[in-house]
């Protein structure tokens, strides 16, 4: 649905734009989906609208997001009623304005654009140009930039029909922007103010500092005038303006030690602000993630019945044939399990058997009715239960599994739950239950009742992972390459793919579980004290950032971005469905 034609008139109105953004956003690459998306397909008159998508992009240097939030600036507060916004975004960790500006105008990080010094030396803007260039390549739009900072204007702005800088005079920047918006052909307007940053540098970057707050309120007044002019355009009703208001970064300022969580969220210098406004948007704030208890999040499938289950073909499942004898290879199998509803009988969880009825070859992990215990059988002559482990409860995650190891000229199997050994070793030296049947995640044909459950983070090591390592990594939700036994990992299925009809194997790339039926991927975000998820810089991307803005602009203008190498993330607008 992306297009690159020189004519940007949208004969299907905003509805076509929404479809474009959805089409341009891979499900696993987008932020979590929101309720409240507007369905223009049900609105007859919008289908006949002729509206031209346009851009107004305002940068406020040095405006701390938290200070914007507490300033109660009247115009920004009014705009917020139809905006998707974040007060706790994080800019580049260098805290360098040249870098953050370049992020905001190119849509790529410094590793690509090369701007890491104040003089812009090393900039790589040929391959990663300022966003005006991409617009000019695709559309016959007028582009205009009005900057308080000559450094930004001279080093970053390109392909502009108008490019003016005003020697740190924000009043002149505002006047030039207002004049530009009086033009019928105004289409893409970039405005940069820097007086807030200068006030912060001189007096302090916090709303408790009168001069800093005054500077924010003055710019808020300028924004009010700009928005008034925008809405007074004679063709405004036939235009579809996306207004972006964002700061490049905040400014250094002491914070209460109790508010310091040890992450970049606690650095006022990096605390930026991002707002996307359109009259059709619903107010929606992007909240800072909880950094003290990082949740397990992603997408899973609720397995249920023989149709909705994961199947690893018999040929691919041969790696789960464990052989026999005291010199056979050692193995460790682990998976995460979340039960949504127990069945009334013994619902299978994970098995390689034609029927887990204690008489078939193979092995199986199965629920003991609905009492919260589980058992393992087949590989051992007798059933091993989890009776000594905490009971499984609905809605909670557990890591369960088993280890096969050789010791004292014998072969043994032992069970684990949440990293703890929960059974005595059982001798399986003479047992051979290898077979040529598939491996099933979920229900097996013709046996027992079905539970509704999600299975993720499936790990198969061709090694007897030591108990201390099992315990250390059971609380993690993936297998990092730093895992001491990573080289022994012969199968790994996170099962949080989010798209498609399979659980993909990250090791072979081909041994994938096929999901039957009509699988629906559901997003989840579960915090639990048992998780020890390492902090990852990915968490900063859970809020919109400056580097995301060019991609948002291209999506709004329906410009194809496949070959741009962008680092920015696509964010789905949250629409007001009542309009």
UniProtKB/TrEMBL annotation:
Any one GO MF term held by the record is:
hydrolase activity, hydrolyzing O-glycosyl compounds
Annotated GO biological processes are: carbohydrate metabolic process
One Pfam family matching this protein: Phosphodiest
- What residue ranges are annotated as transmembrane? 12-29
Q: Which PROSITE patterns match?
A: PROKAR_LIPOPROTEIN
State the UniProt keywords alphabetically: Membrane, Transmembrane, Transmembrane helix
The record's annotation in InterPro entries points to: Alkaline_phosphatase_core_sf, ConA-like_dom_sf, Phosphodiest/P_Trfase
Note the Gene3D superfamilies from the entry: 2.60.120.200, Alkaline Phosphatase, subunit A
Q: Which domain of life is it from?
A: Bacteria
The protein's name is DUF4983 domain-containing protein
Organism of origin is Pedobacter chitinilyticus
Top-down, what is the taxonomic lineage of the species of origin? Bacteria, Pseudomonadati, Bacteroidota, Sphingobacteriia, Sphingobacteriales
